[in-house]
Amino acid sequence: MAPILLNSMGNEHNGYIEQEKVYVKNPHLDSMEEDILYHFNLSTKTHNLPEMFGDIKFVCVGGSANRMKAFAQFIHQELNLQGNVDDIRDICEGTDRYSMYKVGPVLSISHGMGVPSISIMLHELIKLLDHARCRDVNLFRIGTSGGVGLAPGTVVITDKAVDSFFRPQFEQVVLGKVIVRSTELDEELARDLLQCSAEIPNLPTVIGNTMCTHDFYEGQGRLDGALCSFSTEEKLEYLRKAHEAGVRNIEMESTVFAAMCRVCNLKAAVLCVTLLNRFEGDQISTPHDVLVEYQHRPQRLVSHFIKKRLGYLS
Ligand SMILES: O=P(O)(O)O[C@@H]1C[C@H](O)[C@@H](CO)O1
Ligand SMILES: O=c1cc[nH]c(=O)[nH]1
């Protein structure tokens, strides 16, 4: 098999991958007798991972454990699977770090808030997919975000995940050096999702850049945190610059999600609904039932995509 050039910024151990060797990029793993996925409470010795997870084709991740349980129950109904939705159990119940639910070929996992939390989850998820010998898996982050110039309730499918300087890259400090990885996502997947959104009534959706920050308050230019070091005008100027750079929403995980999936050759997409328009305020004051409906929108979109891929819809 001819090697292909790795689609990222060249920080991998040799810069090349074998096309069929998915997904992990770590030569040290080959010599380990057992791999303990500590935060999932799973291990290659105590669990038959190929039997448990070998048929997975779609992985959906999001911050909240309750949301990802609700998504698992929703997809169970959407795919008309046998059994009672109330019997879907948390595979990671031996740990309270993450929650994981398997529904047919769909895995639903919570990742907590922020880059470090999702990054740990992704390391273990990507190893899990590899140990289980999964192939052709699509990954989706279905989350919430602050909109930049969009009506609340709009779903943003991420074109490029950008950092707080609007750069399409993710920086990770490794052994005291900064490693920079590209955060470009799969264009075809984003286009397919946009097409799906057009087939669903009342699902306003756009493709745009998503800014990933390391904080919800000052880091996202909010004036309502415990600390604030800037004026209202400075905040609005920053949001205007973000909008000019193509940013349509702000959240806290997309850059590392995009970077890790890209290095590991996993097709991935980020779909986050906007809870508010940040040009109009900082506080999330929308009624609870409206927020719940908003959070369901990326789930409806991914469910439609999955059903189409599985041949449930023409
Ligand atoms: O997946 P969720 O909705 O948790 O993602 C966003 C980004 C942060 O994790 C969190 C902040 O409220 O929401
Ligand atoms: O404004 C928002 C809303 C949800 N999540 C974020 O990270 N920011």
Give unreliable regions as ranges.
Answer: 1-20
Strand content: 15-25%
CATH architecture of the largest domain: 3-Layer(aba) Sandwich
Largest sheet: 5 strands, mixed, barrel
Number of strands: 14
Strand order of the largest sheet: 8-13-12-9-14
CATH class categorisation of the largest domain: Alpha Beta
What count of domains describes the coordinates?
A: 2
Helix/strand-derived category reads alpha/beta
Order of helices and strands: EEEEHEHEEHEEEEHEHEHEH
Number of helices: 7
Outline, from the CA principal axes?
globular
Bound molecules: the ligand O=P(O)(O)O[C@@H]1C[C@H](O)[C@@H](CO)O1, uracil
Radius of gyration: 19 Å
Q: If you consult CATH, what is the topology of the largest domain?
A: Rossmann fold
Q: What's the average pLDDT? A: 93
Give the CA-CA distance, first to last residue. Answer: 35 Å
Topology:
Elements: E1 4-5, E2 16-17, E3 36-37, E4 42-43, H1 49-53, E5 58-62, H2 65-78, E6 100-103, E7 106-110, H3 115-131, E8 138-147, E9 155-162, E10 169-174, E11 177-182, H4 187-198, E12 205-212, H5 232-244, E13 247-251, H6 254-263, E14 267-277, H7 288-309
Parallel strand pairs: 5-7, 5-8, 8-14, 9-12, 12-13
Antiparallel strand pairs: 1-2, 3-4, 6-7, 8-13, 9-14, 10-11
Helix pairs in contact: 2-7, 3-6, 4-7
The protein binds the ligand O=P(O)(O)O[C@@H]1C[C@H](O)[C@@H](CO)O1 and uracil.
Keywords: Glycosyltransferase, Transferase
Binding site for phosphate: 97, 141-144
Pfam family, one: PNP_UDP_1
